[in-house]
Amino acid sequence: MHAAIIVFPGSNCDRDLAVAFESAGFRVSMVWHKDTGLPEDVDIVGVPGGFSFGDYLRCGAIAAQSPICRAVIAHASRGGYVLGVCNGFQVLTETGILPGALLRNARLKYICKTVGLRVETPDSAFTAGYGRGEVIDIPIAHHDGNYFADADTLAQLRAEDRIAFTYTDNPNGSTGDIAGILSANRRVLGMMPHPERAADAAHGGTEGAALFRALAGVLTPA
Amino acid sequence: MQARVHVMLKAGVLDPQGEAVRHALGAMGFDGVKGVRQGKVIDLELAEGSTEADVRRMCEKLLANTVIESFTIEMA
Asked: Residues B24-37: what's their mean pLDDT?
């Protein structure tokens, strides 16, 4: 199993994400934003948290135009797996791989704390290790995590069971308490909370590790 | 030649920064401010012969996120 982690100038969760994948048994390659291609045998692309390009213009907007993102879009459109966390989720919405956008938090504060997440669907390679409705504790750390989508998009996400996680106590004004969503083929997950920051006992919580273990279970060659 | 692009959050998209400014104005005693929306102005210095259609493509691809933002272009 091979995970590629994209590194932008300003990414700061890239190594944490790499460790979480490695702990679940993945081989990890770090891929610089100016690279034009992904490693050939890559099973999943991780788009990490951080402040790519200083959040200039809009969070994730400049990263979404980087050379590697064309390869990530091609990987996703071929049915490849992609996990975008925090700024990675913002990048995925800016590329159009995932619908909607992330707005400034409703109360304007940068929020860094552990929150309760409800698993809305176990029906994906990312969430198969959890039960439907299970509540897990995962840290958030963002200023622009207020998910927005128009009414038609929201209705579609709900009808297709593509809301992966919701907040138990909405911290940021996110529409429908949404914390993470899946692509139509369920192989791309974007989420604001950081499962890689709750993947080792030293983190103070390990409830994010099941996400990486579930991915490993699905992507292990038969 | 130059172009000025105004980028605003669409109507119906919450603008918490504008709301904070509205509250601050009220607290300072400026009565009667019913709403504040905050946006961006982007000035572009362009090669001669650039067209509004060129700027429109820049807006659609990068300068605005049309999921949440609308834009207007002034060519000068």
From this structure: 95
